[in-house]
Amino acid sequence: MSNGLHFRPTRAEIDTHALQHNARLARQHAGDCHLLGVIKANGYGHGAVEVARAINGNVDAYAVAFIDEALRLRDAGFVQPIVLLEGCFSAAELPVCAHYNLQPVVHSQSQLDAILQARLVTPLAVWLKTDTGMHRLGFAPNEVRQARAALEACPQVASVTLMTHFANAEVEDHALNQRQHDAFFDLCAETSPTPAVSAANTAAMLSRAIDLKTEQGHWCRTGIMLYGVDPSAHTQTTELLPAMRVLAPVIALRDVAAGEAVGYGSTWRAQRDSRIATLAIGYADGYPRHAPSGTPIWLNGQQVSLAGTVSMDMITVDVTDLAHVDLGDEAELWGPNLPVCRVAEAVGSISYELLCRVSERVPRHYK
Ligand SMILES: *Cc1c(COP(=O)(O)O)cnc(C)c1O
């Protein structure tokens, strides 16, 4: 913003103490395992650099999706290893990985070939991904042996960590969890000593899809937990603290007679004489455009509900039952008073999406 001026009251407050608290809890859950702090997508919308700083000391390394996200952390001065969860998109990235100690995932034959053909001054630590049933990325179990042998024989490779990813870890007794678990640990057991391995995301850590007590040296990859969300819960039930609070002020108040409609498309119609507050936040800020009327919003100590279609910069809210409301009052779209998972459920999404889609024009305020 020009002149470094920030006037807009609409904002996302990021609670760095909550991030620290959640990272400490993740650390406790991980027991003797190693912990990767997943801070892709700008730290799930919280600001990757600030999150990295807050959780530093409780995680052993960071993970992001691709190299540009990792380089931002290097530019900010972080020296810990950083895993690239999608690996490299071109061979040109490999010398940069070597130079900056970035550890790419290898999930495809072309990524494998690029490493085998590279000439690097420093060998790379790589993460070899196995597709045990999610069918998104990775080598099939019967292809892994060969890929692993090729990497281990390659002078450009310093170490190989075997990894996989669960498709349903947040559903405690999903049949695929056991199948993926067994397929993966059978592969790991093929050599001794067992290689470095990584399978658990937050949901697997919390649900014990993997018994972390017997998995010393396992690398847990924890993301959503750091931000205060339990991926398997539909309410804020755990001891986790929400790290993001999104706030927007009331910028207009009006009375709307029974029978009148509000907003684009006139999708919400007053069933009684109603009071409508307009808030300065919309889909350009990342508030979901498809949020239906009735989606909860927190205002002046009470829950109120969205009334009408979400606009680009504004939403309208039914405040008829509020004891008091004034221009300038601040509503919480989600945060400590209104768990993001509740909003996600109302709009047919997940907490992850709401958090990481808060757009750049919403200033982050750190405390
Ligand atoms: C994003 C991601 C994670 C983190 O998942 P959470 O559910 O946020 O803990 C772990 N592993 C991989 C491969 C990922 O892409």
UniProtKB/TrEMBL annotation:
This protein's UniProt keywords: Isomerase, Pyridoxal phosphate
> Which Gene Ontology BP annotations are present?
D-alanine biosynthetic process
- Per the UniProt entry, the Enzyme Commission number(s) are 5.1.1.1
Query: Catalysed reaction per UniProt?
Result: L-alanine = D-alanine
Q: In which pathway does it act?
A: Amino-acid biosynthesis; D-alanine biosynthesis; D-alanine from L-alanine: step 1/1
Q: From what superkingdom does this record's organism come?
A: Bacteria
Task: Output the Pfam families linked to this UniProt entry.
Answer: Ala_racemase_C, Ala_racemase_N
InterPro entries assigned: Ala_racemase, Ala_racemase/Decarboxylase_C, Ala_racemase_C, Ala_racemase_N, Ala_racemase_pyridoxalP-BS, PLP-binding_barrel
Please give the residue positions where the record annotates the modification N6-(pyridoxal phosphate)lysine: K40
Q: Where is the Alanine racemase C-terminal domain?
A: 243-367
Cofactor names? pyridoxal 5'-phosphate
Enzyme class, UniProt record, top EC level: isomerase
Q: Name one GO molecular function term.
A: alanine racemase activity
One GO cellular component, as annotated: cytosol
Annotated catalytic residues? K40 (proton acceptor), Y264 (proton acceptor)
* Sites where the protein binds substrate: R136, M312
Task: Name the HAMAP family on file.
Answer: Ala_racemase (MF_01201)
Reported function: Catalyzes the interconversion of L-alanine and D-alanine. May also act on other amino acids.
The Swiss-Prot or TrEMBL record describes its family as follows: Belongs to the alanine racemase family.
Official protein name in the record: Alanine racemase
Q: Which organism is it from?
A: Pseudidiomarina sediminum
As recorded in Swiss-Prot or TrEMBL, the protein's gene is named alr
